[in-house]
Design a protein that fits this description.
Mean pLDDT: 98
Oligomer: single chain
CATH architecture of the largest domain: 3-Layer(aba) Sandwich
Order of helices and strands: EHEHEHEHHHHEHEHHEEE
CATH class of the largest domain: Alpha Beta
Distance between the termini: 42 Å
Structural class: alpha/beta
Bound molecules: pantoate
Low-confidence stretches: none
Radius of gyration: 19 Å
Strand content: 15-25%
Number of domains: 2
Length: 282
């Protein structure tokens, strides 16, 4: 596996691959890999000839009070895991290379996709994500890019940006990978102490409860939200950020749920660790 630090070097490598007729599959990440990342890399490997993983903790997608400094990092371990997963190139630039002095362009996707759900409490987050992903697409020039469905709003934002800016990259969505007890895998799970880990199960269990009630015939988003709010708050130290039933593509709230509805959840554990999860309920 080749480790590439500089954007120009990355682009030169990508051009060589294109000249040789090899398709590049990109997996954009912020590192601290777990099985979820590995499954994205393997999926990219099934769909493309070369897998490039970007590893960059993107400062501009963190708000001023967020966990940029504390975000978990382990470069050596990440390299070993990516290598084992069959990655051919790992692109790990410095922030100064990605955002040199004078850099002043951002990509902002419209408020109908970025103003609600996570965007309501993280107002600059999706502009940070869209900007870095747009830059990664320009630098790596992938044929396709694989993103996890756990970050369901991010996926919708990236799809919109890719279409609106004619970026010509196929966006592949990969299902959420879960721990055996149902917790959606996330690098931020590492922040959870044992008791908080128990409370974190409130998200996947709330999804299961919503599925049960929906299958039994309860399709009112308002009534289901009340049930889920009480359920999540029955776990110690949980505070609901949002419980939203939205259309899978438009992300607009729905009053009655159907097969196109996604239940999106964000819960703060112990006032510190903010976790998200989502899924269909019908
Ligand atoms: O999902 C993530 O890890 C990040 O938001 C991404 C897409 C790598 C952009 O920094």
């Amino acid at each position: 596996m080749q480790i590439i630090r500089h954007p120009d070097e990355m682009t030169a490598w990508a051009k060589e691959q294109a000249k040789a007729g090899r398709r590049i599959g990109l997996v954009p990440t912020m590192g601290f890999f777990h099985e979820g990342h590995i499954s994205l890399m393997r999926r990219a490997g099934q769909l493309a000839d070369q897998v490039t993983v970007s590893l960059f903790v993107n400062p501009i997608q963190f708000g001023p009070q967020e966990d940029l400094a504390a975000y978990p990092r382990n470069f050596e371990r990440d390299c070993a895991m990516a290598d084992t997963a069959g990655v051919t190139a790992l692109f790990a630039p410095d922030a100064a290379e990605m955002y040199p002095a004078g850099c002043s362009t951002t990509v902002a996707v419209g408020a109908e996709l970025t103003g609600q759900l996570c965007g309501a409490s993280r107002p600059s987050h999706f502009a940070g994500v869209a900007t870095v992903v747009c830059k990664l697409f320009s630098i790596v020039r992938p044929d396709l890019a694989v993103f996890g469905e756990k970050d369901f709003q991010q996926l919708a934002v990236i799809r919109r940006m890719t279409a609106d800016l004619n970026l010509g990259v196929e966006i592949v969505a990969h299902p959420i990978v879960r721990e055996v007890d149902g917790l959606a895998m996330s690098s931020r799970n590492t922040y959870l102490a044992p008791q908080q880990r128990e409370a974190a199960l409130s998200l996947s269990r709330a999804l299961a409860l919503a599925r049960k009630r929906a299958t039994e015939g309860e399709h009112s988003a308002e009534r289901l939200t009340t049930v889920l709010q009480d359920f999540i708050h029955s776990f110690p130290e949980t505070a609901v950020d949002y419980i939203s039933f939205v259309h899978q593509d438009s992300l607009q709230h729905v009053a009655e749920i159907d097969a196109q509805t996604v239940l999106a959840l964000a819960v703060k554990i112990d006032g510190k660790v903010r976790l998200i999860d989502n899924g269909k309920v019908l």
